[in-house]
Amino acid sequence: MTTALAPLERVAKLAAIATHLARETPAPEPFSMRLEPGTFSIAIQPGHSGDAVTEIGALLIWTHLLTGLKGEWWHTNSGRLHIELNGRGPSGARVSVYSSISYTLARKHLALRKGDHETVTPDELYLLALEIAKQKGNDQ
Questions:
Q1: Per-residue pLDDT tens over the stretch 92-115
Q2: Rounded to 5 degrees, what angle do the CA atoms 119, 33, 52 make?
Q3: The pLDDT of residue 1
Q4: Which residue, among 125, 95, 122, has the nearest Cα to 33 in the 3D structure?
Q5: Domain span at residue 89?
Q6: Structural domain tally of the chain?
Q7: What is the SS3 string spanning 102-116?
């Protein structure tokens, strides 16, 4: 009986951490939030707005409370730029925040062949969002 209670306690603690992150993050509700008690981790997918600058902004906002932030992006076979940021949240929980944008919007600013992965920093994501916004402004 004791072994069955330990994982349930971990679920409750992870749920409390996820609730705290959601309350303290000044962002729209996420599309998806997955709790994984076995690895003491939370995966967050911000809502899809259809706008690349908003998508990148959501990633940055959802990760602002995390420490030890590391990121990766890759060019998917379906023509998307998948972006994932990972860090530590309250009580050491691992938190992953992910989204994607159309690769065509980013291809002027990075050269990734389909299937290629690279590390990315929050600063690089911010600069990419600025460049995409500038590009959109010039196209209008």
A1: 999 999 999 999 999 998 989 999
A2: 50
A3: 46
A4: 95
A5: 2-139
A6: 1
A7: EHHHHCCCCCCCCCC
